[in-house]
Amino acid sequence: MLTLDKARTDSQVEIVKVNGEKATKRRLLELGILPGTEIRVNKVAPLGDPIELTVKNSQITIRKKDAANVVIVQK
Amino acid sequence: MKIVLAGNPNSGKTTLFNILTGTNQHVGNWPGVTVEKKEGKLKGHKDVTVIDLPGIYSLSPYSLEEVISRNYLLEEKPDVIINIIDGTNLERNLYLTTQLSETGVPMILAINMMDQVEKNEDKIKTEALGKYFNSEVVEIVALKNKGIDNLVSKALEVSKRDFTYKPTEWFSQDIEEVLSNISSLIKGHVDENLLRWYSIKLFENDEETVKQIILPLGVNEKVRKVVNQFIDNNGDDDNESLITKKRYEHINRICNKTYLRNKIRKEKMSNKIDRIITNKWLALPIFAVIIFLVYYISITTVGGLLTDLVNDGLFGEGGIPDIVGGWLSFAPDWLSGIIVDGIIGGVGAVLGFLPQMFVLFILLGILEESGYMARIAFILDRIFRKFGLSGKSFIPMLISTGCAIPGVMASRTIEDERDRKMTIMTTTFMPCGAKLPIIALIAGALFNNSGIIATSAYFIAIAVVIISGIILKKFKAFAGEPAPFIMELPDYHLPRVKSLGFHVWNKLKSFIVKAGTIILISSIVIWFFSSFSWSFQMVDNVEESILSSIGRGISWIFTPLGWADWKATVATITGLVAKENVVGTFGVLYGFAEVAEDGGEIWSVLANDFTALTAYSFLVFNLICAPCFAAIGAIRREMGSAKWTWIAIGFQTAMAYVLALIIYQIGRIFIDGFAFGSIIGLLALAGLVYLLFRKNPYKD
User: Fold this and answer.
1) B279 near A CB under 8 A
2) Contact at CB, A60 and B486, closer than 8 angstroms
3) Is A30 in the B-facing interface, judged by CB distances under 8 Å?
4) Hey, are the CB atoms on B245 and A35 less than 8 Å from each other?
5) Are B566 and B551 in contact (CB under 8 A)?
6) Phi, psi at A50, each rounded to 5°
7) Whole-Å CA distances, B331 to B179, B281, B340, B346
8) What are B93-126's pLDDT values in tens digits?
9) Which of B57, B454, B636, B315 is nearest to A31 (CA)?
10) How buried is A39 (Cβ within 10 angstroms: 0-12 exposed, 13-18 middle, 19+ buried)?
11) How far apart are CA B574 and CA B580, in angstroms?
12) E strands within B263-388?
């Protein structure tokens, strides 16, 4: 099961499922990280964490720990 | 009449608010919390108030900003909502719109950044869009002041109209059935306009609603039953996530019909810039250069220049104190004393800082407006997280190297309460501008003016911040998993002079008003205590004053630190008014009415009363202990409670005491050999090490 924190940088991924504790899960979904949608993984911060994503035309940064809640398939 | 502004962060809401209210705005706090509330009068319409809600993505029950916003909309019943939408980010912005439309408050959509939309060659069918939300739509470009007049007149028009809330049913049929059931169950127990809002919330098992809504027991049970039945039949998803997804499905349908995207998507300018700014190799060096420049320009060159002008020109020789002193030469001593030394001296302390703060605020405002601040949090988050803080803690610490008051205020951007409290508590360890004279004094008197002393002060400060983070994280109040860090990186744009102006003005105003009053009052109080004896007679010799007897009375406390001298104690106490007072007080106590900023006149006498070791211990104590009263006031405001303020300054002072003690006692071992005090020193060191390295009882 591939999760968002392990995605390749500079690639497209498709969201399969969003897990996690209520508030985190909701926040992720609300920002547009929804099962069935495609998002872009842009890069990792210079020190290794957090990661930067492009979700629906905006840049979102998220810690790898929280990204591990999102199950994806690499495109 | 009340107009409410609601929208995503970075949608241009603040710009719009500033245009609508001009300088007629008031910044305060939402009742009982440390979330900023902005309110103002609509320009040209004295009877219309504009309230700026915090930037939010949703009206979920999970964050303070969202709960404040929804409570305001449901309870205060404003006359109209202006929902500001970023036209380049339509889908995500509409997510909030779907929820706002359920609050029963008339709404008007203001689609901002239309110039960018045009540039991208996208098209939005605004009229059709509005129909989906039963709202009028106005296109605006807030930055260029376009469409605002239209927006205002439409908003006023909408608010005056008779409005009946017509809920649109857009969820899937099975959900709409359940919602309809719930609606009929709760009918009569809630506001008619809010039936849809509450049925959706009850369906989602919204915790805030469950807390607030009062339903008769029987009704409650039936609602629970209906909801649970749906969950049983549905299986996979929880209702909350289901609703969220359905909202986006609906938005998708809307956008397919109304948002015509240019097929060719050019790379955003912001992304191009970020390829350099957050580049793996370039990010940190670029960051270091920018921070250095900010600091250098504000504290040293420009800021320093202006401060010197104020301190030496206005308040120095032949300046205001002397002039006013001349006017009052016929007045009784106590009166001229209170005015010249107390009031003017106090005011001078505040004004002396203003130029540096002004420049610092401008530079930091530029960093924030441009969008770079968010990148700093992104770059530094990993390091700060190791010490229990977050990337957002960096800015308050940076600002505190100028002055802790705006530094503490800057911690507002940190959403997680534990992170914020910890940042507030540790940010004052950074040597602020007022502490520099103390460093200069000690370095000059006891260390041959070596530059190493100043450098060591910064290193010790950083070390203490890190140590504090690690130690505090192991206490219940700060323990636990860090809050999720999910942050949007706003697009870069050139800072706008007007916004910058507002930004800086608001910060400066709080500093002057709040810090100013505290510094003024405490200056007068200290002046009084140092000029009068216990019999309330004015004294010429400060050794006979109340202050000095207090100093003598408690100086024994500092014996383990090596400097139980009454003069040092008194100087430390006056440091609570303003840290640079330490130097001035030493001057007075050693018989010099006035001394240079670094106290050059008293270096030799000081060298008689201190050794290098005791002087360093004194320095560390004064740098790390509780900050000046004005900063304590800022802490009080940002902590929101007296209890936490005491915890903060207690922690800081205890840390200062322990460190100074360790430095002195262990240092003494190398000079004088082992003594009784050495045991205390070693014990203190052991205690510190234990707190640092013990297992975190709250980590699994």
Assistant:
1) yes
2) yes
3) yes
4) yes
5) yes
6) -80, -175
7) 80, 67, 11, 20
8) 999 999 999 998 999 999 999 999 998 889 999 9
9) B57
10) buried
11) 9
12) none
Contact A34 B58 (CB under 8 A): no
Distance of CA B240 to the CA centre of its chain: 32
Strand arrangement, sheet containing A70-74: A70-74, A11-18, A38-44, A51-55, A58-62, B486-489
Mean pLDDT of chain B: 87
Q: What is the pTM of this model?
A: 0.84
Read off the pLDDT of residues B219-231 as tens digits, 9 standing for 90 and up: 888 888 888 888 8
Q: What pLDDT was estimated at residue B498?
A: 82
Q: Rounded to an integer, what distance in angstroms lies between the CA atom of residue B273 and that of residue B290?
A: 15
> Parallel, antiparallel, or unpaired for β B2-7 and A70-74?
unpaired
Residues in chain A within 8 Å Cβ distance of B278: 43, 45-46, 52
Dist CA B199 CA B193 (whole Å): 11
Contacts of A54 in chain B (CB under 8 A): 271
ipTM of the complex: 0.95
Task: Check if the beta carbon of residue B254 is closer than 8 Å to that of residue B94.
Answer: yes
Rounded distance between C-alpha atoms, residue A59 and residue A42, angstroms: 9
Select from B275, B382, B392, B699 the residue whose CB has the most chain A CBs within 10 Å, as the one to mutate to test that interface: B382
Q: Is A26 in contact with B245 (Cβ distance < 8 A)?
A: no
Length, in residues, of chain A: 75
CA dihedral B554, B558, B563, B564 (to 10 degrees): 30
Give the pairing type, strands B107-112 and B136-139: parallel
Amino acid at the residue B504: V
The angle that helices A22-30 and B239-258 make with each other, rounded to 10 degrees, is 10
